[in-house]
Amino acid sequence: MAQRTRHIGIRIPLIATAAAVAIGFSAAPSQAAEWSSSEPFGEHRTSDGYTLYNNIWGAGAGSQTISADSSAHWDVTADHPATSGIKSYPNAKKVIDRPLSELSSLTSNYDVTVPDSGAYNTSYDIWDSDYDHEVMLWVNHTGAVGPIGSAQGTVTLGGATWTVYKGDNGGNQVYSFLREGDSSAGTVDILPVLTWIKDKGWWGDETIGDVQFGYEITSSPGGLDFVTNDFSVSSR
User: Fold this and answer.
1) Which residues does 9 contact at the CB level (< 8 Å), separation at least 6?
2) Tens of each residue's pLDDT in the chain, 236 residues
3) Three-state SS for 203?
4) 69-73 contacts: CB < 8 A, separation 24 or more?
5) What value does the CA radius of gyration of the chain take, rounded to a whole number of Å?
6) Count of other CB atoms within 10 angstroms of residue 49
7) Backbone angles phi, psi at 13, to 5 degrees
8) Does the CA dihedral 96-100-103-105 come out positive or negative?
9) Residue 108 CB neighbour total at 10 angstroms
10) CATH architecture group of domain 6-235
11) How large is the greatest C-alpha to C-alpha distance in the chain, in angstroms?
12) Alpha carbons 153 and 30: distance in angstroms, whole number
């Protein structure tokens, strides 16, 4: 797998110009999306505390547009060539900003409609606040895609059984959990996964930063649609 330089891309929107952030906020009929962008790092902050990113970051990427009615309902149309290497990770993000030891619950609901062709995964991307550690939870995947690192066995946590991979992309540690059996809708109990990583000694009492959810797209030739029918993150 190519080095995941997209993590730099994810942070770029935080310093994006007002003009870039504002793309898509023009007068439109009531049935149109609240926000839409085809800019590589287009972003939109919602009134309920989420941020949506188009996030086209990989070499050789094609075109991609993200459109949103809300943080819970958004879709992506992507036309990326059938070449290797991740092209984008369009996603919605909720910032938690609490130490692991202070969390009593961290859960998320998802419901997606994804294509049966192309190469991609539908995944959570969870970060500590310093961006030293990355936890990926793949709920489904299609085509020639695979995680960073080496297999560490299987574990049943958070409502599913996962094959666990551990590696390093050159910028941070990566812990990938690939769900056994693709799922298009469900609830993930995230906290037990994060606690399990701590119990393994792979990280300490990290402050949990971003909980992102989206589509890590390697190829989608001809244009494919990725639809988020529902998404939310809850913590306490």
Assistant:
1) 40, 41, 55, 56, 57
2) 333 434 333 333 332 333 333 333 333 334 578 999 999 999 999 999 999 999 999 999 999 999 999 999 999 999 999 999 999 999 999 999 999 999 999 999 999 999 999 999 999 999 999 999 999 999 999 999 999 999 999 999 999 999 999 999 999 999 999 999 999 999 999 999 999 999 999 999 999 999 999 999 999 999 999 999 999 999 99
3) coil
4) 69/33, 69/34, 70/34, 70/46, 71/46, 71/231, 71/232, 72/228, 72/230, 72/231, 72/232, 73/228, 73/229, 73/230
5) 17
6) 11
7) -60, -25
8) positive
9) 21
10) Sandwich (2.60)
11) 53
12) 50
Q: DSSP secondary structure string, 158-190?
A: TTEEEEEEEEE-SSSEEEEEEESS--SEEEEEH
Token pair of 227 as six digits: 């639809």
Q: How many CA atoms lie within 13 A of 153 on its CB side?
A: 4
Q: Can you say whether the dihedral through the CA atoms of 160, 153, 205, 208 is positive or negative?
A: negative
What pTM does this model have? Answer: 0.87
Residue appearing with tokens 């369009």: 90
Q: Report residue 64 as tokens.
A: 């991609």
Spatial distance between the Cα atoms of 109 and 71, rounded to a whole number of angstroms: 12
Helix (H), strand (E) at residue 235: strand 224-235
The residues pairing with 210 across neighbouring beta strands, listed in sequence order, are: 95
For tokens 């469900």, the residue is 186
